[in-house]
Specification:
Protein name (chain B): Sugar ABC transporter ATP-binding protein
Number of helices of chain A: 15
Shape of chain B: globular
Radius of gyration of chain B: 25 Å
Number of strands of chain B: 24
Keywords (chain B): ATP-binding, Cell membrane, Membrane, Nucleotide-binding, Repeat, Sugar transport, Translocase, Transport
Pfam families (chain B): ABC_tran
Helix content of chain A: over 70%
Oligomer: heterodimer
Number of helices of chain B: 18
Strand order of the largest sheet of chain B: 6-9-10-3-11-12
GO molecular function (chain B): ATP binding
Largest sheet of chain A: none
Number of domains of chain A: 1
Radius of gyration of chain A: 24 Å
Chain lengths: ~425, ~525
């Protein structure tokens, strides 16, 4: 249709009141308040993370933010973050995947068998394992998407199946160690490219600073673009503070982590994935459609979205990311054990819900999930340093999850 | 005779829409009082006021039951006095037994332990009263709709009913079951139980009713006493439809109607869960370039099923027939293909099937044509925003910005968002299913204007509506549908509400001779939704 042919319909009565000039200032104030209110969740979550970090930093006498510990934090949580990215899509599309822990464990076991027993090189083995993960996701997604079997049940079955299979192919025993090349996936650091740095890791520091600058540049570009099209933007003070903080925080952590051994390889993988999935969820057609399916599957279907195929693909994606998580974890332990992956699904799902994803589907952001995963990671790490037993660690994590979701529900009801 | 029920000056409005205006209505002891009127005339609302679904304080006026003013807070209050309503959609639990359903509440029990013997004995007694011989432990799902209806009545009897309200009780029953049910009402009457009967089947109404009250646009038009004679179906129909049609519809000035755009031949659709039940029977129709075609009919006639089956087989199984656009056969086997073919379907249930209520206007408008705002599968958010802004202006969607969630808009504005979404797919044929349901008068007028302008641009428009004046007011030609068939076709100039109603009633009378009647619209909609979830 040409765009100008439809003139505004002539209504007998219009129900909009004309704006009163004196109220403009008040309206602008309200807009600011509205902006803060509507973004309170995003800010609040990040602030909570900082508060928790600050708390443990003080309680542990500065251990938390030491370079060595920060590196550990990254290594300990990388596989959770990686899997949480896949889980976010699953949850946004209105489903759940309980099998990710077992799948990760199973794929780790397969990797060990391939590399340790059959001496396959780590590149081929890793690729095979990722494909295997995708196939596992496809096998589960098929029943969920095309037969309408609840994902809870299918993946509960998958959880049992792959836990069992991992036990079976490992004959109940640990298998390892891996070749050092594969270990690098988890415990390696990016090489120092600059000559004569005298024990400093300038390449890593530089990378961190470049990343921070890129983030700030992107956000300024987005704001300018929005302003040039007269879109409402957040108040300039907020914007400045937010970006300054963003820059400071990224640079600080990059420098801190880098001063240990340089940036870990897995951090690079993680960062690339986070950027990729962030872009995918916010800007691509597929991303938009996944949110639509979770928001109202029937309306999405009647709008021409192939809802079944999309659901299927989110599970394929989840399987592949669970496999990657499994590889990273196996590389970190340097051995595949039948118990690997146990309980991952709970941490991954908790990360999504703490990060603001809705259990009803259609809502959730990559940034939120990453922060959610970090909150759990810092809690784990901080409490371990403090010497809190695994028992009360779980109690506290449970309460944090419940609290985060309660705050969400409360906010929505207001 | 003494009045068991008197409702005086009842008025009720829903967010700006007046559903009932100063309605007075009374039922005498041992009387069958029929309530007639078009869809949306206010019958169900009046009964909800009476039964306490709309509690005291949410309406104006007085309710006197057995001579005392009553203020019902909820349905339990009215049931306690013996006012029992049996809804169109039966409220039975399919996988529980007859006895369990009848005694779902007030279960005979000792210390919380159900007295099984007592339950069964009383169930048998109640079933005998309604003429059923089924065992009390038969599951509801294993008996037919007619018998389920009787179980509902048995359930009402278990609550010491004094006033029984039946909302379209025979709509899904065949002739024999309908007769049995009406005989039962006459029997109750002899026992002194009063009934209110809501029905579209005027032959049944005139057979059993003592008095008939006709509602129209939320007002009482007339109460006729059948015992005095002179009440026939024509008179009831005239009372039901007579109204002022001026100024509610934009005038249609010399429509430019061209060659047929979209044609459907011998379209057959079967029920998705009961594949041997035909929901749409050999329907053939066409719409011309620039033409607005209406499909009239009562709820449950099969219009939505027909439309949704056309739109990418979104409803039904074993779909047969051909559809052509400009004479070329169309592939409508999936929704994306139907959209590509140039079809758009604006659903009757915009909240459940039309909108992402948690997303803003912008994301809803682009949803069906994301390719139109993206390049290489990446959404151009500025472009998307412009599109949404353009439609917001053109459709006059009242909102503070395109970033407002659609769940927070009024019904009329929500409908405009859905329309925008489909216009952005640039369709050749638009099917609008109940486009003005639940929308206030001003917004209705705007939607009518939009529909007319679309036709003026050369699109073929099909409007499904249960409001006959609306069809008469805006369309060029009207098909009449009943029980899955097209039973009449009128140029709008020759059509009147009475002619349409008569076409439906005549067919209903024919259909009543033995044929099972299709399920209610509600049922169809629900199965359509189920169908949308599973292939």
């Amino acid at each position: 249709m040409s765009d100008n042919t439809l003139s505004p319909a002539t209504a007998p009565a219009a129900d909009v009141a004309p704006p009163v000039p004196g109220k403009v200032a008040e309206l602008a104030d309200r807009a600011h308040m509205g902006f803060i209110k509507s973004h309170l969740r995003d800010y609040g979550l990040t602030l909570s993370l900082f508060a928790i970090m600050l708390f443990f930093e003080l309680v542990t006498g500065g251990t938390l933010l030491r370079p060595l510990n920060l590196t550990n934090l990254v290594l300990q949580n990388s596989y959770i973050v990686i899997m949480a990215l896949g889980m976010l899509l699953v949850i946004v599309s209105g489903h759940i995947d309980l099998s990710v822990g077992s799948v990760a464990g199973f794929v780790g076991a397969v990797a060990a068998v391939l590399m340790v027993q059959y001496h396959l090189d780590f590149v081929s083995a890793s690729i095979l394992c990722l494909i295997l993960g995708g196939l596992i996701g496809a096998a589960q997604g098929y029943w969920i998407a095309y037969f309408g079997i609840p994902s809870f049940i299918v993946t509960l079955a998958g959880m049992l199946v792959f836990k069992g299979l991992a036990l079976a192919i490992l004959h109940g025993q640990s298998l390892g160690p891996f070749a050092t090349t594969f270990q690098k996936l988890s415990s390696g650091f990016i090489p120092e490219l600059l000559p004569n740095t005298g024990g400093h890791f300038f390449t890593s520091i530089l990378l961190g600073v470049i990343l921070a600058l890129a983030m700030v540049a992107l956000s300024i570009r987005g704001r300018l673009r929005q302003m040039s099209h007269k879109i409402d933007v957040e108040p300039v003070a907020f914007f400045a503070i937010k970006n300054l903080l963003l820059f400071a925080v990224i640079t600080y952590f990059a420098v801190q982590i880098a001063s240990h051994h340089g940036l870990p390889n897995v951090l690079i993988i993680m960062t690339i994935l986070i950027v990729l999935y962030g872009f995918m969820t916010q800007r691509t057609v597929v991303g938009r459609q996944i949110y639509a399916v979770g928001g109202n599957v029937r309306a999405a279907k009647l709008s021409g979205i192939r809802t079944e195929r999309l659901t299927f693909l989110t599970f394929v994606n989840m399987g592949a990311l669970a496999a990657l998580g499994g590889l990273v974890f196996a590389a970190r332990l340097n051995t595949a054990t039948p118990k690997a992956g146990q309980g991952f699904e709970l941490e991954v799902i908790a990360a999504c819900f703490i990060g603001g994803a809705s259990a009803y589907g259609g809502v959730g952001k990559v940034a939120g999930v990453v922060v959610g995963a970090l909150i759990i990671g810092v809690l784990n790490n901080g409490m371990s340093i403090m010497g809190v037993g695994i028992d009360y660690q779980q109690v506290l994590k449970g309460l944090v999850l419940l609290g985060a979701v309660c705050i969400d529900v409360y906010n929505q009801k207001r | 005779m003494t009045a068991i029920l008197e409702m005086r000056g009842i008025s009720k409005s829903f967010t700006g829409v007046k559903a009932l205006r100063d309605v007075s209505f009374s039922v005498e002891k041992g009387e069958i009082h029929a309530l007639c009127g078009e869809n949306g005339a206010g019958k169900s609302t009046l009964m909800k006021v009476l039964s306490g679904v709309h509690p005291h304080g949410s309406y104006e006026g007085q309710i006197l039951f057995e001579g005392v003013e009553r203020q019902f807070r909820d349905i339990n209050d009215s049931e306690a006095l013996g006012i029992i309503i049996i809804h169109q959609e039966l409220a039975l639990i399919p996988l529980m037994s007859i006895a369990e359903n009848i005694f779902l509440t007030r279960t005979p029990a000792r210390l919380g332990v159900i007295d099984q013997g007592e339950v069964y004995a009383r169930t048998r007694e109640l079933l005998r009263k309604v003429g059923l011989t089924e065992a009390p432990d038969t599951l509801i799902t294993n008996i037919g709709v007619g018998k389920q209806q009787l179980v509902e009545i048995a359930k009402a009897l278990s609550k010491q009913v004094k006033l029984l309200i039946l909302d379209e009780p025979t709509a899904s029953l065949n002739e024999n079951d309908s007769q049995a049910l009406l005989d039962l009402l006459l029997e109750f009457k002899a026992q002194g139980i009063s009934s209110i009967l809501i029905s579209h089947k005027l032959n049944e109404v005139s057979r059993v009713a003592d008095r008939i009250t006709v509602l129209r646009d939320g007002r009482t038009v007339d109460t006729m006493d059948c015992r005095e004679g002179g009440v026939d179906e024509d008179r009831i129909i005239r009372k039901m439809v007579d109204r002022d049609l001026e100024h509610r519809y934009p005038t249609r000035e010399n429509p430019q109607i061209g060659a047929p755009v979209f044609e459907v031949r011998d379209w057959v659709v079967h029920h998705p869960l009961h594949p041997d039940r035909e929901m749409v029977k050999n329907v053939s129709m066409h719409v011309r370039r620039g033409e607005i075609v209406g499909i009239a009919g009562l709820m449950g006639a099969g219009r939505t099923e027909f439309a949704m089956s056309l739109f990418g087989r979104s409803y039904g199984t074993r779909i047969g027939g051909t559809a052509t656009l400009h004479g070329k056969p169309l592939d409508l086997s999936s929704v994306p293909r139907a959209i590509d073919a140039g079809l758009a379907y604006v659903t009757e249930d915009r909240k459940a099937l039309g909108l992402l209520l948690g997303e803003d206007i912008r994301k809803n408008v682009s949803l069906a044509n994301l390719a139109g705002v993206s390049s290489r599968n990446v959404i151009d958010d500025i472009n998307e925003m412009r599109v949404a802004d353009r439609y917001r202006d053109r459709m006059r969607i009242r909102s503070h910005s395109i970033y407002q969630d659609t769940g927070k808009l009024s019904g009329g504005n929500q409908q405009k968002v859905v329309l925008s979404k489909w216009l952005f797919t640039d369709p050749e044929v638009l099917i609008l299913d109940e486009p003005t349901r639940g929308i206030d008068v001003g917004a209705k007028y705007e939607i009518y204007c939009i529909i007319q302008e679309l036709a003026d641009q050369g699109k073929g428009v099909i409007v499904i509506s249960s409001e006959m004046p609306e069809l008469l007011g805006i369309t060029d030609r009207i098909y009449v549908m009943n029980e899955g068939r097209f039973v009449g076709e009128f140029p709008a100039a020759e059509a009147t509400q009475e002619r349409i109603m008569r076409a439906i009633m005549q067919d209903a009378a024919r259909g009543a001779s033995g044929q099972p009647v299709p399920q209610q619209g509600k049922d169809a909609r629900e199965t359509a939704r189920e169908g949308a979830l599973t292939p």
